[in-house]
Amino acid sequence: MIEFRFLFLAVLTLCFLVDETGIAVLGLLAGIMHECGHLIMVLITGYAPKRIAFEMTGIRMDQPQDGLSVGKETAVLLAGSLLNFTMAAVSFPIGWEAFGSVHLVLGILNLLPLKGLDGGKLLVLFFSRFTDLYQAENIVFIIQIVMNILLSTYCIYMFWHQHGNITLLIFCVYLWTSIWK
């Protein structure tokens, strides 16, 4: 079953309405390809998700009851950014700099240590090897608060000094809403 949540559609619409550069379309394509990287790796691991939900903070696939092994979950989490980096490497030599740049930025952003992103989930897996899941999530939560403060400060600064690019503020909202995900 595939679900489209209202806030996903609302944020998508807002991005298209305020983006005069066309980068939102490239970002959407890169995001779809990123999620396809995850989906392909999920299928390679032998698991077929029962539900895929398009939410404000990304796309969520239901995991099996017994969960994936740590190795398989790591592969699934890395697959999205790996696909983005591959697309960037292919795009730059053929002159598609904007498309390659969007893929590069998306691949890097998704590896940031933020709970709602692949990097945060990878950190939870890493810390879970040394402590229980609850403590691992608390460690990542603290890291995320620090990262959110730093990234939000940067985004707000850039917003005021880059002619009011609204996508930076949307990104700040995403950072803070992803904490509670």
Secondary structure layout plus pairing:
Blueprint (H helix, E strand, L loop, with lengths): L1 E3 L1 H13 L4 H22 L7 E4 L2 E4 L8 H22 L5 H14 L7 H11 L4 H29 L4 H12 L4
Parallel strand pairs: 1-2
Antiparallel strand pairs: 2-3
Helix pairs in contact: 2-3, 2-4, 3-4, 3-5, 5-6, 6-7
In short:
68% of the residues lie in helices and 6% in strands.
Describe it.
The model has no long low-confidence stretch (mean pLDDT 85). It contains seven helices and three strands, in the order βααββααααα. The longest helix has 29 residues, at 133-161. Helix content is 68%, strand content 6%. It has helices spanning 6-18, 23-44, 70-91, 97-110, 118-128, 133-161, 166-177, and strands at 2-4, 52-55, 58-61. The protein has 181 residues and is mostly helical.
- Report the uncertain regions: none
| Amount of helix | 55-70%
Mean pLDDT score: 85
What can be said about the biggest beta sheet? 3 strands, mixed
N-to-C order of helices and strands:
EHHEEHHHHH
**Care to count the β-strands?**
3
Distance between the termini: 21 Å
Rounded Rg: 17 Å
Structural class, by secondary structure, is: mainly alpha
User: How many separate helices?
Assistant: 7
Name its key features.
single chain, 181 residues, mainly alpha, three-stranded mixed sheet, 7 helices, 68% helix
